[in-house]
Amino acid sequence: MKNRRFFGWLVAVCSGLLLGYFAYDRTDKDFSLWRAYTRQGKRYYEAHDYVQALDVFSEALKISERSGSEDRRLATSLNNIAFTYHGAGKDAEAIPLYQHALQILKAKLRPDDPELSTLMGNLANAHRDLKQFSEAEPLYQEALRIQDSASLLESYAKMLRQAGRDAEAKAIEERVKSIQDH
Questions:
Q1: What is the pTM of this model?
Q2: What is the spatial distance between Cα 121 and Cα 164, in angstroms, rounded to a whole number?
Q3: What CATH number belongs to 110-182?
């Protein structure tokens, strides 16, 4: 009987501490908790456990939302959830999240920041996988203006092939090969 009361008391105290913790703005602790959730979400994602990854990334998103609508952690959290949806084949759910993250980063970063290129590539890939080539192509082109990477070029070539533009895809693939040879 004493053990049950003690356990109940312990649960009540811990619950109260957690509620108290989340009631206050504790930026340093919020960042540590956000980072922990983000790292755990990435581990789940890498294990292809998209349900768990989404749950954990959603917790990170809640923390980042407390930091304000323009915080880079918010953009990262949105991108992580979108990337997980994309990995799970739920591209329609991923697109608005990628767009929101891109909007935040465009306001925060220089127009030539490689992070923008990566996010644009992620968004373009989601459009490509939904066969929305007219939305994907300008994103690939803008991303490539920022950063000429082999992986981005390969994704663009894949889109061109899916769109039936084989000659253009071949030219891009030759460009990829020249990059990889150097």
A1: 0.81
A2: 20
A3: 1.25.40.10
